[in-house]
Specification:
The chain has about 250 residues and is an all-alpha fold. The protein has one domain. α7 crosses α9. The protein is built from 11 helices and no strands. It is globular, with a radius of gyration of 17 Å.
Length: about 250
């Protein structure tokens, strides 16, 4: 196994730990895929595939919490599937150059939401009649996830705050359900178009599974604030790097 494979597995392990404890694992796995030479759009599609196993296993683990409101599950699933497909189609219908130029802005947006998303969502939830737009908002959130998977969990949690969910276990379950549906519909389109780099994706996926398992074993000993600080620092460094690489160098 050459250095590229070890790098991808290691990135997957770190990403899996972050996703299990605080979220933000794609800030590590997506740049790692680009670093080993995978073109940006293919790297993004491959990253969506690589992190999907974590979403699915997590959603299964929270299945009882998800089932607390059975009347909303069908609409959430359908809107998430539709939005994920729309985002994936949008991704595949722009040029590599345009997507490359949007990467630092997408990372900046995801970083901003990671840092301020909870407070922002609380304020937005106070807007009158916002609940009438929740379906449209979920569709937009899901389209974002199909277009660019990094930060999806944070964006979905912000939506759930707007939707006035308060049970943290149910919120985590619904976050994983939405993320799973978005990823599955996007992956179907990526597979049909042949844009997933399978072997690198599998390397990241294997690392993510290992990282998720390790996090489950040691998460009680990890201070979430330290993990959150690491994610914020990593995302800021990645954002600065991509801005410099694309717009300055």
């Amino acid at each position: 196994m050459n250095m590229d494979w070890w790098l991808l597995v290691a990135a997957g392990i770190v990403g899996g730990i972050l996703n299990s404890v605080a979220g933000g694992g794609s800030f590590i796995t997506f740049p790692a895929l680009m670093f080993v030479g995978i073109p940006p759009i293919a790297a993004n599609a491959t990253n969506t595939f690589a992190v999907s196993a974590g979403y699915l296993s997590g959603a299964y683990g929270f299945r009882q919490d998800i089932a607390k409101q059975p009347q909303v599950i069908l609409s959430i699933v359908l809107l998430s599937l539709l939005g994920g497909a729309v985002g994936a189609l949008l991704l595949l219908n722009i040029s590599e150059q345009v997507f490359t130029q949007t990467i630092p802005w997408l990372l900046l947006f995801a970083t901003f939401l990671f840092v301020f998303g909870e407070k922002l969502s609380v304020h937005l939830a106070k807007i009158p009649k916002l609940s009438t737009w929740l379906g449209v908002i979920l569709l937009i959130v899901s389209a974002y996830g199909g277009f660019f998977n990094a930060g999806l969990g944070i964006v979905v949690l912000s939506y759930l705050v707007l939707a006035q969910y308060t049970d943290i276990n149910q919120m985590n379950g619904l976050k994983l359900l939405v993320s799973s549906c978005v990823s599955l519909s996007a992956i179907c389109i990526f597979v049909y178009q042949g844009v997933i780099a399978w072997l690198p994706g599998i390397a990241v996926l294997v690392g993510s599974v290992i990282g998720g398992y390790l996090a489950a074993r040691v998460s009680r000993q990890i201070n979430p604030n330290y993990v959150r600080s690491f994610v914020i620092l990593s995302s800021m460094l990645m954002t600065i790097y991509f801005f410099a690489d694309i717009y300055i160098v």
